[in-house]
Amino acid sequence: MSRTISTMSKSGSRLLNRFVTSLSFSPAIHRTTRSLETLAYEEVRSSPDKPYSCTAFVLHGLLGSGRNWRSFSRTLASSLSDKWRMVLVDLRNHGKSAELQGLKPPHDIGSAAQDLADLVKLRGWDWPDVVVGHSMGGKVALHFAQSCARGDYGSHVRLPRLLWILDSLPVKVNAEDSDGEVEKVLQTLQGLPSPIPSRKWLVDHMMKLGFSKALSEWVGSNLKKSGDKETWAFNLEGAVQMFNSYRETDYWDLLERPPKGMEIAIVQAENSDRWTPEIIQEIERLAARKADEVDGKVTHYVLPKSGHWVHVDNPKGLLEIVTPKMASLDLVN
């Protein structure tokens, strides 16, 4: 079944209009950062001196990076057993992966998912037990799971047992029903001079164009020093192509027939306006199916007191949803 749902009517501004700041968690978590031929990533563990047996990939959204999820992942790791490792991935064209030369076009959701498989193979890792994907990262997680199930990455792939799809609709986004906020931001960035004169200039310029101070400062936070110049911490043209692919992809068939042994857990932010009554009803229908009606399963959660940025708006509530289910995987690992 395919669905075309408008998700950008007001959520475009939510997607980019929140200045993501670090959360106030401070457990003693070990962290390593490596840039690879495939993807850059950051590793978060609660007990780095002990062997791990469970891995969760954490995937950010458009124009973000793995560091956006650093604080949440620290706390999640500390709330689980020391068996767990969190791998915070910088998707292609984002974060430190934007600096890599080996990630060739097409820059789409399928290629971003293939990058994850290449990362596993290059590092010689076991396949991830869990994939957590927020916004655009949610669709990358779905594509990765679908490709694993189809054998696209080889015959010895182990499917993730659990997907967390965080405020990310698994359907095609109808751009005609959008208010165009995300598109306006991307078009503005494409029209800016290169190099950017300064971060202050950028923030002032965007505010003069009518964008909010919070949005303008968030965009400015994605600048980095390159010698005496300011450059983007992401590959803008590649990110635009990924956004277009995000709008076009649809994974409803995967939800209708989830692979055996896989759970697809969809978290809907209570105050996120990207969810329509139709799509909520359909997801609730899938979640209500009996175990003998399908091999895998779909579950549905509503995160209260949260907009699209679930890990910032209500991190405690999100942890209360995510932690018990992930902890239960220890018992069968």
TrEMBL record:
The keyword Hydrolase applies. It holds the Pfam family Abhydrolase_6. Residues 58-319 form the AB hydrolase-1 domain. InterPro entries: AB_hydrolase_1 (IPR000073), AB_hydrolase_fold (IPR029058), Serine_prot/Carboxylest_S33 (IPR051601). The keyword Hydrolase applies. Belongs to the peptidase S33 family. GO terms for molecular function: hydrolase activity. Keywords: Hydrolase. This is OLC1v1034164C1.
